[in-house]
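During the second year of the project, the team shifted from modelling isolated chains to modelling whole assemblies. The rationale, set out in the original proposal, was that interfaces cannot be judged from single-chain predictions alone. As a representative example for this report, we include one of the complexes processed in the last quarter. Its constituent sequences, exactly as entered into the pipeline, are reproduced here:
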Amino acid sequence: MFLQQLINGITLGSVYALIALGYSMVYGILELINFAHGEIYMLGAYLGIIFLAFFTAIGLTAYSLPLALLLTLIFSILFCSSYGFTIEKIAYKPLRNAPRLSPLISAIGVSIFLQNYVMLTQGATDKVFPNLFGTAGFEFQSVRMTYLQLAIILTSVVLMVALRLFVRKTRMGKAMRAVAQDKTMASLVGINIDTVISVTFIIGSGLAAVAGLMVAMYYGLVNYSIGYVAGIKAFTAAVLGGIGSIRGAMFGGILLGLVESLGGSYISGEYKDAYAFIILILVLLVKPGGLFGKAEIEKV
Amino acid sequence: MKSYRTLYEAARPFIIALWLSLLFLPFKGISAALIFFIVISVLLVSSKYLLKYKNTIAEGKTFKGYRLKAAGLFSDRFSAVARYLLMCLLLLVPFLFRDYFIDVAILAGIYIILALGLNVVVGFAGLLNLGFVAFYAIGAYSYALLNTRFGLDFWSALPFSVVLTSVAGFLLAVPALRLRGDYLAIVTLGFGEITRLILNNWDSVTRGPNGISGIAPPAIMSVSLGKLSYYYYLVLFFVIVTVFITRRVYTSRIGRAWVAIREDEIASSVTGINTTLYKLYACAFGAFWAGLAGAIFAGKMQFVSPESFTFMESVLILCMVILGGLGSIAGVIVGACLLVLLPEVLREVQLYRMLALGIGLVLLMVYRPQGLLGGKGVFIRS
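Output from the structure prediction step:
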């Protein structure tokens, strides 16, 4: 029982971690809580269903399932990244020098828009993701782990390692770190801030798309309102680990997933959704810097 | 080279429209995307020409003249007359309109009280609260429980409700105020969600998702105010009380302290304002009105359930405050009325209400952050 919940928790947590990375990266660079990020994840789940249905309709799925899945993944990422890019250009860029509350409210507006946009175009009822893998998996002393769970965990780890390498080793990653430290100085040494911010949104949204697609496969059901709760939870994960830190988002996500699945089965399932909020409030009050973040010193 | 540039300028709206409709494509298919493309291009092109037109007018003197005239219309004498006329109209509403409209007017009144309460927190003191609906829920549920379990009538339950709500506002603020702007917003959001989850799951007290029914409407001298027109006057009375008191407080020493904190927290603390204390006042005072609105709401509906107190409700109240103009009492009233009345008037587009609300929020923030009637305020300075 305990081990089983542990596996479920890590699976859930690695999805939270993927979404949390988007929050963390954007916050690190713009100091903006990107409320719309949860909706990008929701878009990813919907796009996964739409594209897979399209590939099934043209007969590609019957021809080769892995190819269809790969193409679905690629197209979901492409579209979600484009959405993230466009949202930044329309709703956040004009407000870059505005007071802090303006972009936050604008982000809430985007989030409401995207939810209703999907509800109106795709309907308010749950959408079903076709069950492709069944419950195939392996068993070890009454503990089951499906291949899908394994795939979710592995994909998340690979993506997070790749992101870390990107930020540490590439030129663009260096530019991102510079912009996160000091925007004015970064632009003085010739870094194009707009490009860096766009790349941040594109990468973050791409990761959210992967998370959305994997969750759609895992639960099999998708609804237009899943983005809000998942977004808040992922944000909690980001804050828990220390916002702005990639490692923090990873650990925060997995910790939150564990708390949720263990708390849900041992304490109370009804309040499952409340754990994230309680953790969020406690972390913000006790250690606002998070587990891996540095305590922020307010400059006058 | 130059011709390429003009060509690009001319094609720009179409490129943007093409990009957006491409994003739209997977969600509704090709024909819908085509319509979407045409609509967006028409909108973009026309907005481009409107902007040009507006600029040419703004340069001419005629526009200035109009402005002066418009300012003259709102001279003191005129506004005094207008105010009396408006008052008469408000008093006569139950005689002039159908029950349906009175119902909407009552709803608008409740939202005005709520929005004025949120305006104290966000507009006056500059603290973004995304869980304001929690206080509304506490007010509504406390009246519902006091009435159905202990048999208290509206007037004896009301003091308990508002005091309880103010205390909740105070208690939430004590730890939360240590946080900066956007973190504060997230904590209040979490508080709102936790409140709703508790209402939803604490079956023995709140009866969970089924809600509490059979709440008695208020009565005066054993005359029940359950009738729509009576209830209208009750709400009108409370709206006037709210406007009067919030205005008096705003222009008092406390109100000035709030504005000072909003404009520059460090400077105001240097001048001797106890910023933490005044922020606590703002939170408790704002929550007070939410509690009042909640009790009125419970009395009106005679039924409360957690469904009425979602995050979207918080956002809706916030939209009223922002649309009208943060910190402006008249603006907030206009904002609340608009957001309640518009969807009622435009029944057919009910479905698109939230969609428009989302777009509206973004457009407001980008083009007119001070709201419709807001003057100088939170969003003016950087």
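Residues 60-74, 377-382 of chain B have pLDDT under 50 and may be disordered. Chain B has two domains: 2-71, 95-367.
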